[in-house]
Each structure stands twice: as C-alpha cells, then as structure tokens.
Known about the structure:
Elements: H1 2-17, H2 22-25, H3 31-56
Helix pairs in contact: 1-3
Amino acid sequence: MDDALVAYNAGRVDGAAGYRDPQVAEDPEVGADYRIGLLDGRIAAFHLIAEVRRILGAEGSLFDRPDDVTDS
C-alpha cells in the first residue's frame, strides 16, 4: 500500500510538472498508481492555469496574438 501511495504522489508531481517517467509508468506493480497520479496532476495543472487566466481576465487562445512577434 505504501508503494502505491508513493507512486501515486510521484505521478501527481510529475503530471503537474508536465513530465512522464516511462519506466515508472510501465512498472507492473505500481505503474497503474503512477499513471492515475499523473492524470490527476495534469488535471490540477489545467485547473490552476484556468484559474489564473480567469483572475487576469485573459480570454481566447494564447496563440492568436503572440507577444513575441517582431515587425520585419
């Protein structure tokens, strides 16, 4: 049980960071727990970004008008 919780937490941290460890994800004993944590971490990161955008009043796609375009 402890290994499952450790794997889940590692997956959640990796998911929030946008990283996936293929070796842990394919582990036959804790891989499923890691992958569930990974998904939960990605969902948490998505909700965090959505909330920051809501607070800042950002609307639409971030790719419509990139701010690093230079006139040539």
